[in-house]
Amino acid sequence: SSILAGRRGLIMGLANNRSIAWGIAKAARAAGAELAFTYQGEALEKRVRPLAKELDGLVVGHCDVTDSASIDAVFAEVARAWGKLDFIVHCIAFSDKDELTGRYIDTSEENFTRSLAISCYSFTAVAQRAETLMTDGGSMLTLTYYGAEKWMPHYNVMGVAKAALEASVRYLAADLGEKGIRVNAISAGPIKTLAASGIGDFRYILRWNELNAPLRRTVTIEEVGESAAFLLSPMSRGVTGEILHVDAGYHVVG
Ligand code: 0WD
After folding, report:
1. Does residue 66 have its Cβ closer than 6 Å to ligand 1?
2. Crossing angle (nearest 10°) for helices 156-176 and 122-133
3. Which residues on neighbouring strands pair with residue 87, listed in sequence order?
4. For residue 141, how far is its CA from the centre of ligand 1 (angstroms)?
């Protein structure tokens, strides 16, 4: 169905064809959306350009969320090309790999600050820019993980960052509701991506989910993508401030 026909959205955090952002982009395009993409640095530009082309998307430039000038630049490019925006998808997170193993208590102040800036604050920074372009209302979406709600082995500082991100979804939803802008997150089950490969014992976590989730399996980027298309579309117009678990039901048992 074309639940996103005539809607234009910006996808941030595409790294390769295993990225959750790719699953969401494919589903949004299949639902009729027109897409724009950012990339982080030259190495990823080489991967993002052909993927964007596959979906007839626009590449609006380099964006490293630790550099606010690069955020401004890509939103200026979206404004120039489209004049307005209907949705944004934020699929960005980072922690030093060395701290995604062992104990949370050993987190350094430097990595704590950097992880929170990239994995949490950046969504608010992006929301600030997107607000002015969402003149007919809109939908903002970010990605979170169950480690925000419960202790999970090795997730450490990312769990703290995701808890803050989920709280920011609620505050942004309240701030932007009057303008008809909705703000939600998908809490995805574990999926083998580049970012996930940095997490200690990740294969064990995948296996544990297969054995224990109600659906007795893990989820795919395509499944996360289709749920995302729902949250980006008017089909979810009564939903905001929500954390939707797309995790084969793991959160009811874990
Ligand atoms: O199991 C999983 N894979 C889950 C991921 C379960 C639940 C949630 N998530 C979340 C992640 O925490 C993240 O928020 O989904 C989001 C997307 O992650 P992904 O699809 O798993 O991973 P990946 O394909 O690696 O994309 C993340 C991208 C980065 O890629 P790399 O791997 O090169 O760090 O985030 C981007 C970058 O493209 N990114 C940045 N973008 C702009 N500025 C920055 C930055 N400073 N840092 C990372």
Report:
1. yes
2. 20
3. 9, 139
4. 14
Stretch (H or E) spanning 114: helix 109-116
Provide the whole-model pTM.
0.98
**Whose C-alpha lies nearest to ligand 1, atom 11?**
93
Structure-token pair, residue 197: 């490969």
- The yes-or-no verdict on residue 86 having pLDDT over 90 is yes
Residue 229 CB–ligand 1 contact under 6 Å: no
Q: Using the mean position of ligand 1's atoms as its centre, give its distance from the Cα of residue 20 in Å.
A: 8
In 3D space, the residue among 213, 118, 107 whose CA is nearest the CA of residue 154 turns out to be 107
Residue 185, beta-bridge partner list: 142, 243
| Cα 98 to chain centroid, rounded | 23
Report the helix count and the strand count for the chain, using DSSP H and E: 8, 7
Residue type at position 247: D
The closest alpha carbon to 20, from 95, 93, 98, belongs to: 93
- 49-83: string of b/e by CB count within 10 Å (b at 16+)? eebbeebebbbbbbbbbeeeebbeebbebbeeebe
- CA-closest residue to ligand 1 atom 30: 15
Mean pLDDT of 214-219: 98
Relative to the CA of 12, which ligand 1 atom is closest?
A: 41
